[in-house]
Each structure stands twice: as C-alpha cells, then as structure tokens.
Amino acid sequence: MKKRISLGRRGFLARAAQFSGLFLLAGCDTLSRKAWFEGLLSSAEGLTQRAHRLITPRKAMAREYTEADLSPVFPVNGTTHPGTAEYLAWVENNFADWQLEVGGRVEQPARFSLAALRDLRSRTQITRHDCVEGWSAIGKWKGVPLRLILEQVRPRPEARYVVFHSADPDELGHYYYESIDFEEAYHPQTILAYDLNDQSLPIGNGAPLRLRLERQLGYKMAKYIMRIELVERFDTLAGGKGGYWEDQGYEWYAGI
Questions:
Q1: Could you tell me the CA-to-CA distances from 166 to 48, 142, 145, 185, 231 in Å, in that order?
Q2: How do residues 102-141 score in pLDDT, each as one tens digit?
Q3: CA-to-CA dists, residue 234 to 108, 117, 206, 227, angstroms
C-alpha cells in the first residue's frame, strides 16, 4: 500500500485521532466521536485472541444492519489505486482478464475469473466496518463465501492458514498481505466481496475483490486480492507476523 508509515499501533491511533474531523467531513459515521467506540478500539488492541474467544463464540455472527442504516459514503483509506502496470491493464479491460489464483497446501489448485466467482453462490450482508484509524461506516457487501472456494481446492491436512496476497506494493516494493486461520475462513460472514452497495467494487475500496471479515478490524480485510495461498505456517512470509501491518507491530488477531 502506498504512503504507508511505520507507526506502532498505538501511535497510529493517536495520529488518527488528530484527523477524526476529516473523516467525519468525508461522510463517516459519528461513531468515531463516541466514547464507547474509542473504548472498543482500545479494548480490541489489548485483547488477545484467546481472551476474545472466551467472550465471543467463534461461530457468533457480527451484527447485520438494514439498508436504512447504510452510511452516505463508504470511505476509501489506505491504498486508493495500486497503480502498477499489471493493475492498470486489468482496469483498462474492466478486469475481464483478471484471475484469482488459489494454491499452496491444496489438493486442487485453481484459478477463478471474476465472472466465474459471480456465478458461484453469493452472500449479501450489511455490516459495520471498524477502522483502527478511529472511524466506522456501514456498507452492503456481496461476494462469494470463502468456504466455497476452499471446498473446491480441497485443503491438505497440514494447511492451517489462508494467506491473501494483494496487488498493491508500498514505496519499497513490499506487497500487502494478510492471513487468517481456518475458523475465520469458514465463518459464514467471511466472503470475497466484489460488490459494494449494489455496484461493482470501486477501485478505491479494493476492486476487483476484497476480503470481508466482519468480526475483526478493517486492516485485516485485504483489498485488491490477486492470490490466495494456503500454508502450514506464516513465519516464513515477509516479516513473519502474518500480515503487512502485523509485521509493523499490529496484532495478528484483531477481533472486536
């Protein structure tokens, strides 16, 4: 992701608070001004995955909303356009040549065009996105449940994590990536979203495909997904912490 800065998570929260007014002007919910919401973000930082699971059953569903609750504007943050030659070519032909590659520790590696993903059974959900920057927004997402993709590629017994590789590099050429465990991967609300608010996913929001992981903070929801890799361990990838932001000090499990 371009223009990323190497801040600790607490430092990032403090910096974000300085800009909360800008987020509100951009159409974000007023949730970011509420004390309970700031407390929620702070508590999420401190919760370990184990502690969170003690209070939140793994199969619990994130709250879903109605269309009356949709935010006027769903903000764009992080990378707004990958800008690589490959990505520009995909944009030029409306992602007709783009394919999602799924491999790693699987029995049946596969590739899916955007059209093929749209032909699979879909799920639509209206949920709230909570960003570590201190804002939230409610959007309507449509996509294919990740579990359907996993059923097709058939994970090998040693596979433990699902890694998402994105198209956006930072200024040093490091590409964004994220990882989740199988419990999250098979959750009913974990989808690969291609629509936002009944329109094709905008470039700023991660076109053509992004992860929706409704029970964790927004930085876990990789945008511009190009490749999915099933792995036994992730400490051999990039910085070894399981994600771009995790390599810079964020928690791997960002449950809320």
A1: 26, 19, 18, 17, 16
A2: 999 999 999 999 999 999 999 999 999 999 888 999 999 9
A3: 21, 26, 23, 15
